[in-house]
Amino acid sequence: MQTKVKTMKMLLGGEWVDADHTFEVLNPQNNRLIAYVPAASKEDMLAAIEIADRTYKSVDPWPVHERIRVLNEAADYMETHAEEYAQILSSEGSKTITEARGEVKRATQTIRISAEEARRIKGETINFDQNEGSEHRTGYYYRFPVGVVGAITPFNDPLNLVAHKIGPAIAAGNAIVLKPASVTPLSALKLAEALVEAGLPKGMLSVITGSGKQIGDPLVTHPAVKMISFTGGGDAGERISSQAGTKKVSMELGSNSPVIVLKDADLEDAVSSCVSGAFSAAGQNCIGVQRIYVEDEIYPDFVKDFVNLTLDLRVGDKTDEHTDVGPMIEEKEAIRVETWVEEAVQEGAKIEAGGKRDGAFYYPTVLTDVSDNARIAQEEIFGPVVIIQPVMNLQEGIEKSNNVNYGLQAGVFTNNLQHAFYAIKHMDVGGLMINDSSDYRIDEMPFGGTKGSGIGREGVRFAIESMTEQKVVCFRLQSNI
């Protein structure tokens, strides 16, 4: 059946508008045209920022109860149209329809959590009289919105990662201008639709679609934009950081997530969790399992069971509810992964499963005997490839885990409490999952990493903290009345 091609509008200052030019959004599974989307100009982005700034100043202060109402009604809209959201998400991205439905649920929850956290943006009283001479002073601090937030999101979770920018920004009382990934802009526009329907004040949200080269720099450098929230690659993150100057910046820049499996672990559970963690969303997941270090005694059994379970995964049509792994976002990305695997093989690695490509599909691949210095071991593969290596003990596993310039999340499988706490102390990551793979997250928890994995933390409450400023208020009271 031929899919009807849509012509979309972008949200600029609360109005759905066209642009002089458009670009194509394609289904990565078959390269079929899904939609024409406005290719915004620099002038469009500047207009969106200036409207956001004016609107923010005009509604200040925006009552908390109104923020809560808008966010809850937007979540209601998403729930009512959940299947439509899932179909859009799956068609433009890599996720199977089952994975897409799961993301819609998470994104809806993220918006609801944002509504809940809006009522909990609080300050504290300060005991100024702790200093001699300040006996007649009293005061407090409170949080206030930064103003205009500029947000840039990637393709791999095109709805929930957008919700993690928009939800906290609105909860905090900010205006926000969002630039979604050009390969997956439809989910972001659909989320904006929910907020418009919920009665968000015009101008508080713009979703500007187009090339980062055209509209990214104005968003990052405009003086009215007080904070940049970015999720994406390290190179782009460094460039944004250098351009942003003294603005507030929050960045999640990816990972090369390790998992350590010790001999006292539940082997079946560890295998199942790691297979899911490595290959969901076709491996295009910043906390997906990329390296697994298995204690020597159980290494042969772990590899055998892992390979068998990997070979059972169904690769194919995203619309089929029985499909486990869909295509990568573009064929060029699958070719890149293929190249990295071939490089590793030339350096001595062994392919235990997978290792083949069909267009944008890259089959779930298991590698052993990979050099610690191989590119595929040091960099973020962002594809359905996992490395399994033996280690003598927990200490060696931790040493190897830490030996990359990333530190987002990791997993450790063990039933030994001493081993668990040793790993907690020594693993250089922002999140450590015990008896889960690295690929576990709830949207309320602080999310971010160390080293090249980024700056700051997401998770609704923690994003709100970064999207607000603290103001101290001190009263000097007269000693006599």
From TrEMBL:
Gene3D superfamilies: Aldehyde Dehydrogenase, Chain A, domain 1 (3.40.605.10), Aldehyde Dehydrogenase, Chain A, domain 2 (3.40.309.10)
Domain Aldehyde dehydrogenase: 16-473
Listed GO MF terms: lactaldehyde dehydrogenase (NAD+) activity
Highest taxon of the lineage: Bacteria
Enzyme class: oxidoreductase
Transmembrane spans: none
Reactions performed catalytically: (2S)-3-sulfolactaldehyde + NAD(+) + H2O = (2S)-3-sulfolactate + NADH + 2 H(+)
Entry keyword Nucleotidyltransferase: no
Pfam families listed in its UniProt record: Aldedh
Key words of the record: Oxidoreductase
InterPro entries per the UniProt record, alphabetical: Ald_DH/histidinol_DH, Ald_DH_C, Ald_DH_N, Aldehyde_DH_dom, ALDH-related_metabolic_enz
Stated family: Belongs to the aldehyde dehydrogenase family.
Role noted for this protein: Part of the sulfo-TAL (or sulfo-SFT) pathway, a D-sulfoquinovose degradation pathway that produces sulfolactate (SL). Catalyzes the oxidation of 3-sulfolactaldehyde (SLA) to sulfolactate (SL).
Protein name: 3-sulfolactaldehyde dehydrogenase
Record organism: Halobacillus halophilus (strain ATCC 35676 / DSM 2266 / JCM 20832 / KCTC 3685 / LMG 17431 / NBRC 102448 / NCIMB 2269)
Taxonomic lineage from the root: Bacteria, Bacillati, Bacillota, Bacilli, Bacillales
